[in-house]
Write a structure and sequence with these properties.
Layout (H helix, E strand, L loop, with lengths): L8 H7 L5 H10 L5 E5 L5 H6 L5 E6 L2 H4 L8 E5 L12 E7 L7 H11 E12 L6 H14 L8 H5 L10 E13 L2 H9 L2 H10 L8 H10 L3 E12 L3
Parallel strand pairs: 1-2, 1-4, 2-3, 4-5
Antiparallel strand pairs: 5-7, 6-7
Helix pairs in contact: 1-8, 6-10
Length: 245
């Protein structure tokens, strides 16, 4: 598993979108028992905290100590610094394993081998994520220029899995759900820029060019944003599977 987000963990916690409630509830409902859940690559604990009300115990792992420090303290959630591919959990320990916006960074073979070890025979694995958002037409045009042309060469190749809605990731389980969701926000311009600052490609561009790529579109984007309805729509996707017998 790769760690590209320790450097902006507080911004990641503040500006990244949250998953819709119906998406989380569908995942919870698919777990046959509600004893133990594991949120892998939990980041700031967004998903783990939402599982806490339904499971007796929730474990949440990440390789970034900075990210874990942003997570909320909840009595039945245990945060641990640990890679996704190699854990110290017991065999057949979990009723549910979740991975949100992270599986594209994993070593797939090692991770799925671990899933088959620590997931209960009747448990489920839920993989969820979100893609590039849309907004008003003028802002979309400017944001696409930023995304494709300006920082396009600075995206990690794994980003393609998100662009494809996780439909092309290896998924060696019996799939029981493959579904799309969406999440709508009304953002201030400051929130929009804050989110753009969390892009890995933004950080990579800064490191190479010693300037902020957002500055190249900032003025035009601000004008278009103030004219628009300030709504953003995130496409979200969910794949859930059970172990093959």
């Amino acid at each position: 598993m790769k760690d590209y987000f320790s450097g902006n963990s507080s911004e990641y916690s503040k500006f990244r979108p949250h998953y819709p409630e119906d998406m989380i509830q569908e995942i919870i409902a698919l777990a046959p028992n509600k004893n133990t859940a594991l949120d892998v690559a939990t980041g700031n604990g967004q998903v783990a905290s939402r599982l806490a009300g339904s499971f007796q115990a929730v474990y949440a792992t990440d390789i970034s100590e900075n990210q874990l420090q942003q997570a909320p303290v909840i009595s039945n959630v245990l945060y641990q610094k640990m890679p996704a591919e190699h854990t110290d959990f017991q065999d057949r320990q979990f009723d549910l394993i979740t991975v949100a916006q992270a599986i594209h960074w994993f070593d797939f073979d090692s991770f799925y081998k671990e899933v088959y070890r620590i997931l209960k025979p009747d448990g489920v694995l839920a993989v969820l994520g979100y893609g590039f958002f849309s907004t008003n037409e003028d802002s979309n045009r400017i944001l696409r220029r930023l995304y494709d042309d300006i920082v396009g060469p600075y995206w990690y190749p794994e980003r393609q899995y998100l662009s494809e809605g996780y439909q092309t990731i290896p998924f060696p389980l019996v799939e029981i759900v493959n579904k799309k969701f969406s999440k709508e926000y009304t953002w201030s311009f400051e929130q929009l820029v804050g989110y753009l600052e969390t892009w890995s490609a933004t950080a990579n561009y800064k490191a190479v060019n010693k300037e902020n790529p957002i500055d190249l579109v900032y003025d035009d984007l601000k004008v278009s944003w103030e004219k628009g309805d300030k709504k953003v729509f995130f496409p979200m996707f969910l794949r859930v599977g059970k172990l093959k017998k």
